[in-house]
Amino acid sequence: MTRLFLSGPLFTVAEREFNAGLARFLKARGFAVWLPQERPTRGGAKAIFQSCVKGIEWADAVVACMDGPDPDSGTSWEVGFAYAQEKPIICYRSDFRTAGDTKGTPYNLMLSEAATARVELTPKATAADLHRRVLMQIRKVLRGRPAKR
């Protein structure tokens, strides 16, 4: 079973609901999903940090949200750590505002260039559109890569 770490902001009800919906969609398609908001948070900041590190090390790939005027700082760190671990990274952006550093980068170029695959949506896209496109990129990126046992 392919293991995915879902990285993204989880500070509002809307963010947590969106993350949970994407996790449900991916689990229904046979993926094991590590969603940080579903992990216990006892032990404070250090425990949360260690849990996220463990989740990224466990994963075959990272799926990361790049929404906002500047992607979430925790998500940005997780992308960098996954990149250093040579994990495939699928970055998605459902936010149609541009926030890139240069032409052709819809968000910070260090993040867009770390991505193995990117999904950027148009203003009329739905959550279902995002789910389908993220799934397509996960399958494309992981094709031929063995899953962890």
Topology of this structure?
Blueprint: E1 3-7, H1 13-28, E2 32-34, H2 44-58, E3 61-65, H3 73-84, E4 89-93, H4 109-114, E5 117-120, H5 127-142
Parallel strand pairs: 1-2, 1-3, 3-4, 4-5
What does this structure look like?
By secondary structure, this protein is of the alpha/beta class. It has one domain (3-142): Rossmann fold (3-Layer(aba) Sandwich), CATH 3.40.50.450. The chain has 5 helices and 5 strands, in the order βαβαβαβαβα. It has helices spanning 13-28, 44-58, 73-84, 109-114, 127-142, and strands at 3-7, 32-34, 61-65, 89-93, 117-120. It has a 5-stranded parallel β-sheet with strand order 2-1-3-4-5, with helices on both faces. β4, α4 (109-114) and β5 (117-120) form a beta-alpha-beta unit. The model has no long low-confidence stretch (mean pLDDT 91).
Shape: globular
Instruction: Write down the Rg.
Output: 14 Å
Percent of residues in helices: 40-55%
Q: What is the top-level CATH class?
A: Alpha Beta
Q: What fraction strand?
A: 5-15%
Largest sheet: 5 strands, parallel
CATH-defined fold name:
Rossmann fold
**Model regions low in confidence, pLDDT < 50 over at least 5 residues:** none
Count of individual helical segments: 5
Measured between the Cα atoms of the first and last residue, the distance is: 8 Å
- The helix/strand series, from N terminus to C terminus, equals EHEHEHEHEH
Total count of strands? 5
